What we know:
The structure holds two protein chains of two kinds.
Chain A: E1 2-11, H1 16-36, E2 44-49, E3 52-61, E4 67-75, H2 76-79, E5 80-81, E6 84-85, H3 87-96, E7 104-108, E8 111-120, H4 125-138, E9 146-147, E10 155-156, E11 160-167, E12 170-171, E13 175-176, E14 179-182, E15 184-185, E16 196-197, H5 203-209, H6 216-231, E17 236-238, H7 242-250, E18 256-261, H8 271-281, E19 285-289, E20 294-302, H9 311-335, H10 339-342, E21 350-352, E22 356-357, H11 358-375, H12 381-390, H13 397-401, H14 408-416, H15 421-428, H16 444-463, H17 477-490, H18 497-500, H19 505-522, H20 527-535, H21 541-554, H22 560-578, H23 601-621, H24 625-633, H25 636-645, H26 653-671
Parallel strand pairs in A: 11-14
Antiparallel strand pairs in A: 1-3, 1-11, 2-3, 4-8, 5-6, 7-8, 9-10, 11-12, 13-14, 15-16, 17-19, 18-20, 19-20, 21-22
Chain B: H1 4-17, E1 21-22, H2 37-40, E2 49-58, E3 74-83, H3 89-99, E4 109-113, E5 116-118, E6 123-132, E7 135-146, E8 149-150, E9 156-161, H4 162-170, E10 179-181, E11 184-185, H5 186-204, H6 207-227, H7 239-258, H8 264-289, H9 291-299
Parallel strand pairs in B: 1-2
Antiparallel strand pairs in B: 2-3, 3-9, 4-6, 5-6, 6-7, 7-8, 7-9, 10-11
Amino acid sequence: MSVPFLREIGTEEIPDWMIEPALASLSSLFGGLLAAERLAAGAIRTDGTPRRLVLRTVDLAERQADAEELVSGPPVSAAYKDGQPTGAALGFARKMGVDVAALERHDTPRGEYVAYRRKIAGRTAREILAEALPDLILKIQWPKTMVWGAKGGPRFIRPIRWLVALAGAEVVPFEIAGVHSGAVSVGHRQLGAAHVPVTIEDFDRQLYENGVIVSAAVRRIKIGAKIDALLMGRGLRIREDAALLETLAYITERPSPVLGSFDREYLSLPAEVLVTVMRHHQKYFSVEDAEGVLASHFVAVMNTSSDPEGLVRQGNERVLRARFNDARFFWTVDLKKTLADRVADLAHVTFQTKLGSYLAKTKRVQKLARKLAKLAKTDPAPVERAALLAKCDLTTDMVKELTELQGVMGGLYAREQGEPEEVWRAIYEHYKPASMEDAIPATLTGRLLSLADKLDTLQGCFEIGLVPTGSKDPLALRRAAQGVVKILVEGGLSLPLSKLAAGDQPLAEFLLDRVRYYFKDIRGFRYDEVNAVLAAGHDDLPDVESRLAAIQAVRPTENFEPLAASFKRIKNILRQAAGQAEPPAPQGQGQVQVQLLEAGPETELFQAFEKLRRRVKRSRAKKQYREALEAIASIRPQVDLFFDKVLVNAPDPDVRRNRLTLLDQLLSESSAIADFSEIVATEASASAGAEKTEPQP
Amino acid sequence: METFQDVLFKLKKYWSDRGCIIQEPYDVEVGAGTMAPETFLRVLGPKPYRVAYVQPSRRPADGRYGENPNRLYKHMQLQVILKPSPADVIDQYLGSLEAIGIDLRKHDIKFEEDNWEAPTLGAWGVGWQVMLDGLEITQFTYFQQCGGIDLDLIPAELTYGLERLTAFLQVRDSVYDIEWAPLATYGDVRLADELQNSVYNFELADVATLWSLFELHEKECQRLLALYPDYADKHRFPVLPAYEHVLKCSHLFNLLDSRGAISVTERVAVIGRVRKLALGAAACWVDQQSPVQAAVEVAQ
């Protein structure tokens, strides 16, 4: 027999962004419980609103399957004498509460033992759940928890106020912090009743009638559909904002959008400011016309069903008006003092306690920016100017109020104050990229400034030991490092990574780690290709990108993987040889002595190599890595033949050394692009790459 | 129409009906109702307590010479402490809005995450800002720690922004236009206060004087707190006056800050100094209130 199961945790308002992760945690905890308790059930489904976390499943077994447990007794040798049970066997049977005839024997690694197969009757699901649910609920993972009763009481994200737990028609009885589970839910704060009796079958309907849409997916769809209806025929559309939609779906139990408007005169303020006020401070969608120009409207999403008297719309319009007035006031006042005049004020703004003020940072970033400009062979003056002014907006009222606009405001103020476009644009974009999806700054000056700013933060923090560990990265250093990598690659900036780390080994490794992440997880290159290319050098990231692209292009060709396997073999041979009494000349240093070459495959290999060598060199110099790799791959028949017919470890030490030198040259010519030994054979060519061992002389 | 003072009367009556002591504003400058001893000290220890009071709260840096319609140097908070927090605390709170004439079925109420932390007081809690039609009208906090001490009974703290709430009720765009009493606007009552304090805080306050006042209050507080361990008659010990010196320091710090007189390196250190005093006062208070001290008191 099986029953449906429903459990609702009723709480005070849970922060919107925590609800989905909590539901996932709940679902996995519950799944774990069912598995551990051998309770069969259908799929687990969760739903959430700010005030409830709902978990449902169907076909929950009403009781556990009966189980058996084998209890081990004394060894058979001690349990029976002459076929008769001894005291040991009788004692064990007595302990098990059965007749000695019910015992059986079983083999163990230690020998044969007497055992009793004990039946365990399955408990009912209700019993098990009643016992386990309180702990399970309190085990849900939250970023931050609270106590709401007395010290030492249960911790949860917000106070738990009601609990519904039903297995079929029956309540699963338990209690948390004085709240007893039952079959009564609670409706929407304004639209519903405080007591809503529910059954599993009519849970959603009962709650809907009491003002609550249980499913976030449905709330999301309703918001979208109702916004469409509001804007239909007006030539307007909202600026899509998936993150805001998500927030609104989880901050409401019954979402309804309202369309509000503001005075057109505010459109004279920068659109960045208006949008930020609406988005970040009021959680409004901004609205634009068909051309994408910001319109004097907004869409707010209420947590109620309607606004019959327009009071909610008017209230929101008034709030927005006050905020826009503030913004206009800030804009006017901030412009009275130029950014240049604000530089000294940065002494009063802390960057980081140990790293000093933003004035100190500004000076460091300026110096670094000049260095980077010189490395990039460009005029350092514009980026130095931009670096000087970049952080000054931190002293403006606008940024103190709308911190999300740091950088952007600096750029806008710089523009108003007549700074050249190269400078103001660099300031405007210097926090970019804000994420892996975000674009890098559009101009070289902007890129250099962004690099200098991020590198200064990284260098400073690593110097004072503020290194991210595990999930802890309060200063978002990973993001800064990721930004550095993205700018270097996508901005085509061949600035040596080792110089950017300023000799800090942990920082260099941290950056290299981000390089790997970037090419593998963001750009989708295979891990072995990334390893191979980075092993051949990782100082110049655009070059790394070109080499990776070449490998990716050449890899599917027939010669590549077998050749890679051969190179791996060459590397092994050379490594073994390096440990011997007469090692060959250091990598790439030796000269092949033609007179020592054996006619046939060895000479053929040498000649083929000599022929392609210049071609490879030329291609490499022009960074035409694909051509270079194709040329290298073309030597595969000669390499294969060589390994087939020639014994590298020849008895004559001179001949042997000469062969090793030939292989070494071959390897070093290709290794400048990628270390082929890092390439892991794909299945199709795996057999071709199987290693052979070289016999010892 | 509800005047500013009507709103106050009704909210006080509402919370009085729900078992709160109606206190009067504390008479030392504070930055928030939380800092008044009725909250900061009373939330400590195991004794249940319910209190509501209006607290004029001073934030020197927020002054705008009376020119900004929404920003004030000094604003009025209604501070409600329910210790321990009752299970229906949110319903009680929503009832208070109905009591001042807000028909919640015609409005949009949201509880948006807003955790509160006051490093100078060693205090933090979790809660929400309560949004009414997009306007933040109340800060709702479940205190977790105060004076660096985990709380025995978790109180709910409701802090109403009275000017905003009244501007909402009266549909005014500027706080100065709200009616305080019939025929008297908020501006009539308070504009001069805003203007003059802004001039003082931003332009005329003497930095050296403020620093020496800060140091005097700090010293006096330290002197008192150092006496506590050996003070024989604990229940007579002046913890409350010592705490008043903490408040003075805190306010002077805010003044110095609005004057731009505190440098980066100083800032963290000065906050640390105030915090140390606050933690010291809290620890004395808890000890003074403890059952051991209470028993000594009874015995005497």
